[in-house]
Amino acid sequence: MEKRMRELTDLLNQYRQEYYTNDAPSVSDSEYDRLYRELVELEEKYPELIADNSPTQQVGDKVLDGFEKYQHQYQLYSLQDAFSKEELLNFDRRVKNEFPNANYIAELKIDGLSISLHYEKGKLVAGATRGDGQIGENITENLKKIKDIPSTLSQPIDITIRGEAYLPRASFQKINQERQESGQVEFANPRNAAAGTLRQLDTGIVAKRNLATFLYQVASPVTWGSQSQVLEKASDLGFSVNPVRIEADSIETIWEFIETMQEKRDSLAYDIDGIVIKVNDLAMQDELGFTIKAPRWAIAYKFPAEEKEAEILSVDWTVGRTGVVTPTANLTPVQLAGTKVSRATLHNVDYINEKDIRLHDVVIVYKAGDIIPAVLRVVDSKRTHQKPMEIPRLCPSCQSELIHFEDEVALRCINPLCPNLRQRSLEHFASRNAMNIAGMGPSIVEKLFKAKLITDVSDIYRLTLEDLLTLEGIKEKSAQKLINAINNSKANTAEKLLFGLGIRHVGAKVSKQLLEVFGNLHQLIEADEESIAQIDGIGLVVAKSLHSYFERQGAKILLEELTEVGLNLNYLGKIAAKDAALFGTTVVLTGKLEKMTRNEAKEKLEALGAKVTGSVSKKTDLVVAGSDAGSKLTKAESLGIRVEDEDWLLNQ
Ligand code: AMP
Ligand code: ZN
Fold it and tell me: Would you kindly state one Gene Ontology biological process term found in this protein's UniProt entry (predicted)?
């Protein structure tokens, strides 16, 4: 038992870390909940075995470096969970025991990120994440970019108000589409996208992403009598308040509301993961009080997971641009989170082996945050005599032998001439963060590739208007536009080209760093591994990968061809001049800046060649401190680190 409890604790902590801190969960919420409940049950039976680091003993997420900490004046709480009507009835009994005529209010449980806003004399002065409930992150500048958060209230009062910041589904889909086109990892779900956005150090990104809020709780003392009045007043003050809610005194009525909302859930413009039931009267709330973790006057009913059973009919293996071969299961069709699903990812070979997934198994399918459906696990009781899955040894596209690198979970086709891989590489080359050729999305690439008009990226630059017009469904006007876009891309700064080549380990950021240092592609190609590996944040893996790429005859020819058709190979951005004032130094910003925003200060420091980090350590070379600087400044002083002020930075 002890072993299982330890196992569960470790597993859940890992998932929490992935979920809260990295915004990239690897299991579904329901799988998490299932393990969590198993642990809770065991802990109830064996309380003496509860570990200090058990997830049941913790509230909320972690505070990241990079933002100032924010001490909440009023603690933020978690909510008790319920997964059945039974548990709601128990809650009701406990409440009615003290207040036989208690009345409830039921609200939607918005699946976003808790935020806390603080206003003084009606002006927004600070905003923060929940953090661990006592200390959050100060994200005021980011919150100011959310359009529905008022900067000035309709009355000049002091108030601390709480709620949820979320990303509407439509915005989520748009962001993910853009990320997909530019080859970035997609967000798993709107919640993770919202969390990732609010933790952006660049407020400009927040402004673009269309976050929205629903506020639902006033933390500072109020004179209003009930939660429903709080919501009305909040709305009058100018806050966005969710209009969907009911008041009722029986769990029966609330249960009907739950059932209705569960059905309507998919048609809402935002994600909800349950219904929160609160005692409406604030005086009763006060009397009922709190446990260590959560209020006694509220409970969150969580909707059951969107999971279905389906049979694996067959498995497709497809090759991506990096040569990775990915398995996708074809399933008996099931209805899942509002859509019909007949395909689900099996991730990779290691996943299949680890979960022992076999052809014709009945499996649990879920939607990993509303995007790609995935296979979660096998329903063991429904296994008959399936044999272990056959893992392909040959590439489904070119039939060359597949490689399973030891340090990888993926199977790879390493044949540079593999048709599937080529097509994907061409897509990547044209995508936004690479050469950004507008109008050359995956479907056009596919047509051009199938028509053998392009096989290599240099072919793109030999395309003529006539070539394009031979394709089905292309009109003269869009063909001309595409030709123009192709021509314009020749002048791109060279890191776009480097990234577009799709060299392993050479992403958009690394490409830029490399060209900042080397100035143009030729010099980069001629550089030896050591001088590449020495660049801050690059390392030997990248250096080796570049080297083996450019060593190949094919790569040399390609580069010659690209030069011939007139592509720019020079870096056109700002050069991180080795003689810039702060070249190669690590700088920490702290305290309040008066004349510039944090972001401006950061950009300025970076332009001076510095790397800006969040916390002071022995590696820090310089601290730029504004007014009211706190612990970071003290630490810098104790470590004898150079400290400068805002005016100094302005004069650089
Ligand atoms: P959990 O994170 O599962 O413990 O659930 C508690 C969280 O639900 C709170 O911290 C809030 O961020 C969130 N929540 C979403 N909607 C509401 C709501 N209407 N009332 C209270 N909490 C809500
Ligand atoms: Zn292949």
Answer: DNA replication
What residues contact residue 318 under an 8 Å CB cut-off, 6+ apart? 325, 326, 328, 396, 397, 420
Distance of CA 342 to the CA centre of its chain: 26
Please confirm, yes or no, whether 602 is among the known catalytic residues. no
Give the start-to-end residue ranges of the domains of the chain: 1-57, 80-302, 307-404, 419-490, 494-565, 586-651
Q: Which residues contribute to the annotated binding site?
A: 29-33, 78-79, 107, 130, 164, 278, 302, 395, 398, 413, 418
- Which ligand is nearest to the Cα of residue 420, counting in written order? 2
pLDDT for res 119: 97
| 424-450 tens-digit pLDDT | 999 999 988 899 998 898 889 999 999
Residue with tokens 């399918």: 365
Does the pTM surpass 0.70? The reply is no
| Nearest one of 19, 12, 28 to 370, comparing CA atoms | 28
Give the number of whichever ligand sits closest to the CA of residue 412: 2
Ligand 1 neighbours (beta carbon < 6 A): 78-79, 107, 109-110, 114, 164, 216, 276, 300
Distance in Å, CA 416 to ligand 2 centroid? 8
Binding site residue list for NAD(+) = 29-33, 78-79, 107, 130, 164, 278, 302
At 219, is the pLDDT very low, low, confident or very high (cuts 50, 70, 90)?
very high
Are the C-beta atoms of residues 190 and 369 closer than 8 Å to each other?
Answer: yes
Does residue 270 contact residue 166 with C-beta atoms inside 8 Å? yes
Atom of ligand 1 nearest to the CA of 111: 15
For atom 3 of ligand 1, which residue has the closest CA?
79
Query: Which residues, 6+ apart, have CB-to-CB distance to 101 below 8 Å?
Result: 249
Quote the strand ranges of 73-204, DSSP E.
81-82, 104-110, 113-120, 123-129, 135-137, 159-166
User: Which ligand lies nearest to the CA atom of residue 418 in the structure?
Assistant: 2
CATH class, 586-651 region? alpha beta
Give me the catalytic one of 45, 109, 578, 602: 109
Looking at residue 188, its pLDDT comes to 66
- The residue nearest atom 11 of ligand 1, judged by CA position, is 114
DSSP labels, 13-27:
HHHHIIIIISS--SS
Ligand 2: distance of its center to the CA of 554 in Å?
17
Name the phi and psi angles at 115, rounded to 5: -135, 160
The minimum-distance atom of ligand 1 relative to the CA of 114 is 12
- Answer yes or no: is pLDDT of 193 > 60: yes
pLDDT digits (tens, 9 = 90+) for 251-266: 999 999 999 999 898 7
Domain 1-57, what architecture? Orthogonal Bundle (1.10)
Ligand 1 mean position, distance from CA 79 (Å)? 6
DSSP letters for 100-111: TT--EEEEEEE-
CATH H-level superfamily of 419-490 = 5' to 3' exonuclease, C-terminal subdomain (1.10.150.20)
pLDDT in tens, 401-428: 998 877 777 788 988 789 999 999 999 9
Given this model, what pLDDT does residue 64 score? Answer: 43
Distances (CA, A) of 626 to 307, 597, 621, 633, 637: 51, 11, 17, 10, 14
